[in-house]
Specification:
About 70% of the residues lie in helices and about 0% in strands. The protein is mainly α.
């Protein structure tokens, strides 16, 4: 509800501002013929819903798949193979050590505890190594480059990269976060969902090192940024086509992104001052 309400509010505000500034002048009458309205039948409604749903899923599934692959590749290279070998070697060392303890322990209950401890240690090790791999990857370099501009909004570099991926489609923001935060990348006894991953993330560098990344305030700031910043490529193409000039597409990117940045900055900084 908040997303809809704020979106409508900013749309009305932007329309009023542009009417008084960019588009001053006499209003041109707009006349459009409308077909007669009829109460839709249940059958027609179901057919229309099915057609639109199938069209949307076909279009968006391809975009999300391609974007997720690109994000994964950028997060894997250039040191992906090296870190994969490190994970294998250290996992083997941990497994060998615990298996030796399990073999000499006659108590089944203690054996189960040792197995759980082994799985947990391997998972923590894997998570730490993958974190280091991402920070040294191609996408990590891009994220670190733009992080200073997004840090005042409460965002870390992974959130910044997720926002960049939204240029293809805003739905990709979530799938990108799933890749970057390694949600269920290694299915183990303690594998976690994206929601749980986000709730346990902490800053590793900077003045907020050790602090939780996602708080309710940061989540609100991030939600507002995603709501207000530049539309996807499809919308930009439509704006350029309808306006007849590429400059309106570029203008849309800059003014919406600036609006999103300022709004998120105000929400995060004021909320932080108030102790949220």
């Amino acid at each position: 509800f908040l997303i809809y309400a704020i979106g409508i509010g900013f749309a009305v505000l932007a329309a009023l501002v542009f009417k008084k500034t960019l588009f001053k002048g006499e209003e041109v009458p707009f006349v459009m013929e409308l077909p007669p309205y009829r109460v839709p039948t249940f059958k027609a409604t179901i057919i229309h819903m099915w057609s639109k749903a199938v069209h949307y899923l076909r279009k968006i599934s391809g975009i999300i798949l391609v974007a997720s692959i690109i994000i994964w590749v950028l997060g894997y290279f250039p040191y992906g193979l090296k870190y994969s070998r490190i994970i294998e070697e250290r996992t083997e060392d941990i497994t060998t050590r615990y298996e030796a303890l399990i073999q000499i322990e006659p108590d089944p209950e203690i054996q189960r505890s040792l197995n759980l401890a082994m799985e947990r240690e391997v998972e923590i090790l894997t998570s730490n190594i993958l974190q280091e791999r991402q920070e040294r990857s191609l996408i990590g370099g891009v994220g670190r480059f733009i992080e200073p501009a997004m840090a005042p909004l409460g965002f870390d570099w992974k959130m910044s990269i997720s926002l960049l991926s939204g240029l293809a489609a805003k739905e990709i923001v979530v799938s990108t976060m799933g890749v970057l935060y390694q949600a269920d990348e290694h299915v183990q006894a303690h594998s976690t969902s994206l929601t749980e991953k986000l709730q346990t993330q902490v800053h590793t560098t900077g003045p907020r090192a050790g602090q939780q990344v996602f708080t309710p305030l940061v989540a609100l700031s991030f939600m507002l940024f995603v709501l207000l910043y530049f539309p996807c490529i499809g919308v930009l193409a439509a704006i350029i086509k309808e306006s007849g000039h590429w400059k309106w597409g570029v203008f849309t990117v800059f003014y919406t992104t600036a609006t999103a940045w300022v709004v998120s900055l105000i929400v995060f900084q004021v909320g932080s001052l108030l102790g949220f």
